[in-house]
Amino acid sequence: MSVPTSRVDQEMTSAPHPFVPAPSDGLPDDLFPEVTVARPRARKSSAPSTDKLLEGLNPPQQEAVLHAGGPVLVVAGAGSGKTRVLTRRIAHLVGERKVHPGSILAITFTNKAAAEMRGRVMDLVGNRAKLMWVSTFHSACVRILRSEIGRFHVSRTFSIYDDADSKRLMQLVANDLELDPKRFPVRAIMTWVSNCKNELVDHESARGRAAEGSVEASYAEAYAEYQRRLIAANALDFDDLIMTTVHLLQAFPDLREQYRRRFRHVLVDEYQDTNHAQYVLVRELCSADVEPGPETIAAEPPELMVVGDSDQSIYAFRGATIRNINDFELDFPGARTIMLEQNYRSTQTILSAANAVIGQNTGRKPKNLWSDAGDGAMIVGYVADTEHDEAQFVAGEIDRLSDADEGRYGDTAVFYRTNAQSRAFEEVFIRVGLPYKVVGGVRFYERREVRDAIAYLRAISNRSDDVSVRRILNVPKRGIGDRAEAAVADLANRERISFGEALRRIDDIPSLATRSANQLRGFVDLMDAHEAMVAEGAPADAILTSVLEASGYLAELQSSSDPQDQTRLENLVELVTVAREFVSGVAVLAAADDDVVEQAFDPAAELAALTASVEPRAGVRLAELPPEFDPLDPEQDLAAGAAEVDDSLGAFLERVALVADSDQIPSPDQESAGVVTLMTLHTAKGLEFDNVFLTGFEDGVFPHMRALNDPDELAEERRLAYVGITRARKRLHVSRAIVRAAWGTPQHNPASRFLTEIPDRLVDWRRTERAVTSWRNTSATTRSSQSWRSTVGYAAPKPKVREIPVLTAGDRVLHSTFGLGSVVATSGAGDDTKADVDFGSAGLKRLSLKHAPLEKL
DNA sequence: CAACTCTCCCTTTTT
DNA sequence: GGGAGAGTTG
Residue A744, CA: closest nucleotide via C1'? Predict the structure, then answer.
């Protein structure tokens, strides 16, 4: 699924969307034209020999690939080829050891990583690998929950609430409970609840634990009410996905035993970033000493392999605990540990820097990464005056490297600690015309119009989804105000029904104005009509376009004069395209599944091979296995897959909820290869680039201010630095700015302690603080505070004396209000010279060169 | 009921 | 600087 990550990357590829007209043209007849989706290439290779699978691997890697028997912990340093090991191992299992692909569960950190791993394995062993479960914890849990509908309070159509939805719901709860927003900010309640869920503490236990009248008691009360409404709305939040699945398996031992028997191999990547709930899930599936239910027949637990690096644990803030990887041998007795210390990614210089920094962390198991790639280039260091200066250095350096043929744009990445820091880079990169792509940041799915559209779909698919229904109740404006909404909410509360149901009973609300009641009826009719479309099997994209038009949402945007609304329209078109690709993609997959069964499967033989590999425990006979569930039957999986396909809308919504924009990181083989990648250090995990720029190395920025006086958080920041450094293959650049604008005001920051931890002999300093200091002494004191502010603040300084630019068609220009544009044509001469400039979404303008605030780029 | 202004955070990091 | 939510006015 192709999702733009930000407005910016659209601009960089080609400003206007091909389906969106220039503003002056009016709208096309068909705003959402058909798009054909390419069928994915078929993968039909035969299983490779073991020799082939081990090719190019060092002994410990080979050992990991071939390991058979008990649990394994692979401690893999950065760049030691752990993904490769996992991929080859799965191929080995399927190809050589004849393990049924459907009995493999591989957990990756992102959906993107899952897709890549799946693709690589399929390249190695062919289409039958399609039956593997390769996904994130969250996706795997959704899949399990969907299959086990009816066992728990989860219905067929449930909404998955992301952080924004959860926050909105908690806001409603806090309002209704009249919690003092000063003492109990919604944000704090959310964190508290999330921690509870990660620790598998449900709302009743949380209530029981909290002392009467304590602060915790209020939190627990909010938790309970929040949970009640989630359940009423048929919704699960992110943490619920894991917690509910764990509780499900614990509550139904027979069910757990079915999954334990089904999955013969469980592999977990990035194990250092698992939280407690995820750890328990793994334990329930794989531990040898889980109590089977009284009536249940126990099988040998699946073979478990986890891969991770405790030095790369950077998600403690969301509940990840290093304990899981450090105590693996305690949790899974008899576990074997394999160390991968040879690094295949970076030069020795880069590794030495990484080792020196991470070595400052106390209480870690020492590890020494080494490389035989040679020393390579020195690390380049730069101390900038301001963040703009820093960005300029980075842009210039990228350009220089590109000219010297030392790194294409696509092999180059710029990392920073917080998303807000991307701004300075974007400004400078646009100015110098350096193509780039921001990953993360303001995300596609967080845009207001996209969220509105998704809310429509969710409301249609699940009328009990109060948060979604209420979000779009009066969007676009249809005369349903706070009063009307409150009246309906009142009825819902009184009758203990959902807001959506209350809407159907507006006749029971006498206080409602006739006009409001009519509008509400119209809204219900709109929803009903589209619910009927779903029932008739209309695909997600058709429902989306239909509801956008019927609701008047499109019309409102189209008639608006706000230029932002044009962008919103483009984003909606993009969303429709995403939906359409999804629908076609699912159809293609379903068709491909037929091929799989026909060409690659001999179900009887597969089943026989597998049954042989499932060793029942002593005293239990295989014949006693419950007959109704055959975890090894591929047909059941295909049937489950078909069930997902038949509800196109639900499947689409599920996908939308679970993808992250980091899943859109450009792969080397994508066309975006010619573009510099900008992202946060967290997003950078698992990636590698020839040239890496680590920026903002200032105490207070990185390490972040809030980590400065907490040793644990500081250690995590240092691991983040370690992750950043080890992303670089050939050349590493580190930089900091003396002055950085934060909240619109300049801030003076000292050098990051991490910077001083890199041995000086490894760094070639292009510019040091000394140069900066002398500059500050000569000029800074003489400036007025206002001009100083404009130098460091966000307002770009404009030259005082402006020359009339000489422009020809094709030139790129910057306009102070319209932004970036390209010259289409020029006319006139001398002072009367005019230029027609295309400003993309801002439109085509004819400007007088003498007067217009234009700058040639 | 909607449009407008004002104030208050905001900036950690994300499945 | 800027977005979201609250508060105020038409």
Answer: C1
